[in-house]
Structures are given as structure tokens and as C-alpha cells.
Amino acid sequence: METESETSETRGDTGPEPRVDTGAESQTVRMAGRLDPRGSWTADACSIGRALDVVGNRSALLLLREAFYGTTRFDDFATRVGISEPSAAARLRQLVAEGLLEREPYQEAGQRTRMQYRLTEKGSDLFPALVALMQWGDRWLSPAGSPVTLSHQDCGQPVHAELRCGAGHQPLVGELELSVGPGARRKGGATS
Questions:
Q1: How many Cα neighbours within 13 Å face the side chain of 6?
Q2: Of 32, 63, 116, 164, which is most buried, counting CB atoms within 10 Å of its CB?
């Protein structure tokens, strides 16, 4: 059996170990209200699906990663993500059209004006999702430990994404309840 310090060393992080309940019930969200039973509805207005329509491919997520890491210029995006210039151009256009990045002009001395890319507020709001993906990859796909670490500049402590309720509790998946929200569609296509 591993001790807590062995687990942290092996995984290469210093954050708290997530609470895990391995029972089958604990790995699923409970359906409530009109959503129970699960077979009575489909997730056709799903926010996860709509978000994946915007950023659901590898190159789009890696371009966003680079924007968070400070990349602004087209050539740097293509090189750092390892994709062709036509692919980078298409994905960057998509991210601009979706409002995650904005283009702004810049000019180096003696050169023509070019465009650079900056994150918008909408794009910046995706950072916790990217941190969660990074944490998952560190835990499950990086046996030698995290390739990079994220820490709070002011205090030096590790930063991690986590699920918390409005009262500050950190619930397990099996302690969550999914119910109809205000943007749900009613039968016949009307929204509530």
C-alpha cells in the first residue's frame, strides 16, 4: 500500500489527494425532477456538446493553451502546436469567429502591419477547463510525473481545478444532482 508521500512523489505533484469513492453509484450524477428517469429525455441542448462544437478538436485546444502561455503571433502558434499553417489559419479563424480570440494589428520596425491574437474574456473563461484536462493528463497519462506545474505566483502553492458547491463543499460525483435549468427546451422546441 502506498503512503501519501509516495503517491505525491510518484505523481509529481504536491496537491491534496482527491476524494475517491470507487462504488458504481458514486461515479454517476443523480437525475432529479423531470430528468428522472434518464430514458425519458435526451441531451440535445447540452452545453457540453455546444462547447465541444467550438473547441472540440485537439488543435483548437492546443492553440488556446498557447494563447494562455502568451503566444500571440501566427507563426508561433503553428510552430508551437505543430500543425500546418493552413490548419493553424483555419482554427485561429474559427476561434476568432467564436469570440475566444481577437485579432489586433502590430508592426515591427521596417515591417508591414500584421495581426496578432489575444484572448477575450470568453476565451479566458476556458482556462479552468484546460487546467482540469492538464490535471487529468498528469494523473492518468504521465507516470513519471507532471511535465509542467502550475503555481500561484504570490504564494508559490500549486493551483488545481476542483468542483465545489456554492457553500464551499467538494462533493464526489455521486453526491451531485442534475436537474432542469432555465435554458432547457420544453417539448415542441420552446425554451423554458
A1: 3
A2: 63
Place of cell 492546443: 62
**Comparing C-alpha atoms, which of 20, 14, 12, 16 is closest to residue 143?**
12
Q: List, in sequence order, every residue forming a beta bridge with 191; answer none if it has no partner.
A: 185
DSSP code, position 166: T
Q: Name residue 7's amino acid.
A: T
- Which domains does the chain carry? 46-178 (1.10.10.10)
Task: Give the separation between CA 131 and CA 87, rounded to whole angstroms.
Answer: 24
* Alpha carbons 24 and 118: distance in angstroms, whole number: 43
pTM above 0.85, yes or no: no
Alpha-carbon torsion, ordered 41, 46, 52, 54, to 10 deg? 140
- Residue type at 24? A
Nearest-angstrom CA–CA distance, 180 and 157: 37
Grid cell locating 94: 474559427
Digit-coded pLDDT (tens) for 83-125: 999 999 999 999 999 999 999 999 989 999 999 999 999 999 9
